[in-house]
Amino acid sequence: MEKLYFITGNKGKFKEAKIMLRPLNIKLIQTDIGYPEIQASDLKEIVLFSINFCNERLKSPFFLEDSGLFIDELNSFPGPYSRYIQDTIGNDGILKLLLNVNNRSAYFKSIVGLYKNGPHIFEGISRGIISNEILGHGGFGYDPIFIPEKSPKSFGEMTTIEKNKFSHRGRALEKLVTYLESGVE
Q1: What number of CA atoms fall less than 13 Å from residue 7's CA on the CB side?
Q2: For 2, 50, 81, 101, which has the most beta carbons within 10 A of its beta carbon?
Q3: Residue 86 falls in which region: left (phi positive, over 0), alpha (psi -120 to 50) or beta
Q4: What backbone torsions phi and psi does residue 136 show, to the nearest 5 degrees?
Q5: How many C-beta neighbours within 10 Å does residue 105 have?
Q6: What is the pLDDT of residues 25-77, one digit of tens each?
Q7: Residue 42 is part of a domain; what is its CATH number?
Q8: What is the pLDDT of residue 183?
């Protein structure tokens, strides 16, 4: 059985990936090698830098993921700075920024970077709205305030399997799975 490392300290992301990659004959291993995350306005640039850094340290096939929440009314803020903003002001802070704002449209973007005989990039986007309040206690990060299109529930109200059907990460991981199934080297 082939081994594939997912470089992340986020147990929620690992759980989502494990479910998505289950159909493959791959042993998925979570590892957190503490790579630096550059500050850039483009998620792909961040992921490519991270892939190159990690490839020098881990000599096995691996992937990593970076994502961001882009809120239209806030000029795509927090975008690639989503983790910092989540750690700083959290969901309550985002809801305060959008208090009395009618346009609550937003999207999540995920970039999965695979290193297997060179770098490969897979992108997923999930469009939706920011709720007026925290909904649910599941998931992590912005999940309780993001309601994807064609869903009555926030990510925070969904099971992992439900979330993977709507989520940006699920869509990027779906492309990763298709690539790995194709056997292209």
Answers
A1: 26
A2: 50
A3: alpha
A4: 90, 165
A5: 14
A6: 899 999 999 888 888 889 999 999 999 999 999 989 999 999 999 999 999 99
A7: 3.90.950.10
A8: 77
Number of domains observed in the structure of the chain: 1
Q: Which position among 66, 72, 87, 92 bears the catalytic label?
A: 66
Binding residues for Mg(2+): 37, 66
| Residues in the annotated binding site for substrate | 8-13, 67, 140-143, 163, 168-169
- CA nearest 12: which of 76, 94, 86, 104? 86
* 66 is annotated as an active-site residue: yes
pTM, 2 dp: 0.94
C-alpha–C-alpha distance, residues 43 and 79, integer Å: 8
CB neighbours of residue 85 within 10 Å: 19
Distance CA 29, CA 14 (A): 9
**Residue 166 scores a pLDDT above 70:** yes
List, as residue ranges, the binding site. Answer: 8-13, 37, 66-67, 140-143, 163, 168-169
Q: Which domain holds residue 143?
A: 2-182
